[in-house]
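Researcher: Here's the sequence for the chain we discussed earlier.
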Amino acid sequence: MIPRLAALPAPAAPALAFLDELRLRGFAGEISARFDDRTVMATDNSIYQRQPQAVVFPRDAEDLVRIAKVSADPRFAGVHFAPRGGGTGTNGQSLTDGIVVDVSRHMNRILEINQEEGWVRVEPGLVKDALNAALKPLGLFFAPECSTSNRATLGGMISTDACGQGSCLYGKTRDHVLALKVVLLDGTVWDSAPLDEAALTTVARRQDMVGAIHRVADGIAREQAQLIADRFPPLNRCLTGYDLAHLRDDQGRFNLNAVLCGSEGTLAMIAEAKIRVLPIPKRSALINLRYDSFDAALRDARTLMALGAASVETVDSKVLGLARDDIVWEGIKEFFPDDPEGAAAGINLIEFVGDTEAEVRARLDPVEDLLKAEGRAAGRRGYTVAWDAAGERIQGMRKRGVGLLGNMQGEKRPIPFVEDTAVPPENLADYIAEFRAALDRRGLEYGMFGHVDAGVLHVRPAIDMKAEGAERMIREVSDEVFALTRKYGGLLWGEHGKGVRSEYVPEVFGPLYPSLQALKAAFDPRNQLNPGKIAAPDGEALLAIDKVPMRGQLDRTIPQPVRAAYDEALHCNGNGACFNWDPLDAMCPSFKAMGDRRHSPKGRASLFREWLRQLSDAGVDPAAEAERLRAGTGAGGFWSRLRNTLARNKGEVDFSNEVKDAMDGCLACKSCSGQCPIKVDVPSFRAKFLELYYGRYLRPPKDHAVGSLEWMLPLGARMPGLANALLGSAVGRWMTAKVGLVDAPLLSGIDLPREAAARGVALATREALAGVPEGERERHVVIVQDAFTTHFETGLVLDFAEALQRMGFTPWLAPFRPNGKPLHVHGFLGAFRRQAQANTDMLRELAQSGVALIGIDPSMTLTYRGEYPGMVRNVPRVLLPQEFLAKRLALLPQLPAGEGFALLPHCTERTNAAGSVKEWQAVFARLGAPLKVLASGCCGMSGTYGHEAEHQEVSRRLYELGWQQHVAAEGERLLVTGYSCRSQVKRFEGVSLKHPIQALLLRLREAPTVVEPAPQQVAA
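Model: Thanks. This is the structure I predict for it:
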């Protein structure tokens, strides 16, 4: 039995007093000093981990004012805090050991859109892609790009002066900021916008913090003008973070926003932003140019940049290789063919944009002519061109580069700490040659990609931060790369802010550093706002790269065998892909529904890692404890678990309960394991957690009910009338509700083996399949039953068999065996392993015949590929229907064109077998039915999740986010692959939607000719 984990570090008394004062002053948002909230907010996308004292979630600007006014109270002079947006920073910009001010939960609204004048007014917690989705119908967009745009907030973009692809055309975030409403530390709300001389004079006369700030900033701009011109390099990326060079804009106006943009929350808190938006280019073309070497790609970039492209991006072979194993590759692989020499060692992506095809071609055609004329000059191999949406998919691969690098196998993983250096583009190739030499000397692997047109490359060396001495490597590489950037006229921080790297600021700014200190003091006289970053008062230190706690240092305390046993969580690098705002994307439905970062893969992984660390500190080996539980010897006795449960219910502290709260929200949809670039697999480590947790506490009755479901259904199917009468009665509904379940489906009442036999579908046995002649096996297939379609949608299984017969195949029916998926979801891993082994033994016998195995339900079928291999060996491959049919397209009847359909795949299928979705389209095309795949998130059912009473609100909310609109729009032409998804639609809409196979069967029945099935082969 695992112990109670009660020794949790408490917040400091001044921080708790600060929170109490906030409450007294009417703070409207949430305030949390819970250890789980603090743990989740301790990391971002960097290598660092700083445990905050508390987290506050302001509801509006008035809450920010309350924070500022409380901070101005002399009692709280020692309390410091840091604003936080999406938490996607790579250098610890928003990490603090004070109080986190998270604006993303509530302050995320679009306040005003002025289409005529081309600007919008937004709150700082709004995600960039969410803004652009709202602007798209108006033909507008916010232009600055960043790879994390589907979760990066505008406040965070402003605070780091973010930019990325296309910056040479569109500029940086500050170039689009028209005005900022900020809360100063005396509680003043200041609308910062460009000021002419008269307005500046008026403001500077004010005898308050606003006046003092403007006097200091204007004085620096006037008195240090020549020094500023000398010290700031003439780069596209310029010197963000107190950008003194742009305190006067191109019209000569004073613009305080120049120093606010890029200030990383060290000067003020942003309450609103007025930002410029631009017309969306209507057409785009992307040249994908392949090279013999990455150096050739870099050196060719200068030639390409002179050709009028909107952007030139580069990607090395490491990132390309990782992309080939990612979900993104399926949509772009046609544009990256292998050359006779093999895969390209580097590529350049050259984009051209315009409002018409002719406008784009006017720029594109001369470049194609040049490439054709010069052939393989400059190390070029060849190119493809992707238009519009295809080009966007390729750029999407490039944007995933950071995450893809994190999915390198092994303990050494690429990490960010020198990843956004910028040098003049003409120096880039020589600079990178020395950069690579520095890494090669140390035997480090790395990947590179970035914005070659702006002289910025993202370089992530692979280092095991859990290894002793990793901090020394960070120091050595950082110091050498910093020196290289100085040598080549560049910057260490070209794009992702300074954060923990602020120790290098004094050397970069030199004699200007005292001006930065003066500016910081004017805004923040007591050094309370995100201290230690960019500038610090005399006598107080800036943060240093190897003096801040690192995630790896904490993970290092977990013994290596434990880390290996639970590595589904340990490699999370904080990239935050699970914070994707898009309701029509499958990634992490629980975060979308709850807006609570604990209920995300990153949040759960952070909590799980900390839980493992605390268990290790307590001398517990969770892997050994799990084996004891699976052997039936590790759980506490009933009475001890009852005592623990009663104590928990009375409020006894145990960190395991906070982790359990986060795990309970998981739908086990497995979108994380497919879509996370690192492949963080929450359902797997959640099951392992639940196994150990319920060795200490009693399980709720619903877990036992769900876990035994696959065994109980065959028993109920023997008397379906009685079972349905009981379940459908008031007493039955009362009983299931008492257990914690609702809306239980009714049995179909059809005896599948008997009905199948009546239709010529025999029961599959090893002996029977052995009698199938080898030459005919391609046209034979075994249907592997699952509990849900067999017992609740028996007609679908029979329809599948008929469709196979009409297509010329001979279907067989495997004997029913529980799959074990419900056991895994609820952490009955000992029972699951036994079930998986028994099922695997049967399937292996059937597969020895060479006849293909097919499962109908995606979630259950993909369990054989996902969960089984972690428990048993030599699991035979069980195909999805479309995978089987797509490999045999030539054998299918080719039907004339007919009416089309729309498809909503199951989340697990969409994210863990992405190529199979296109295979549905290929099969439907063969049978003359166009099939469009709709974008959507989770339906909210996800196995039994939607049947659990405690999840009803979240289940309905998820359904309403996307599925509801699709069902209304598509009607009966909508096809759904998942049993649970069809159940959800039936529950909320009273509509029974078809499985794709049933639509194909209708086409086959309507066909003018029918292919006769092959004769059944039965062994003597």
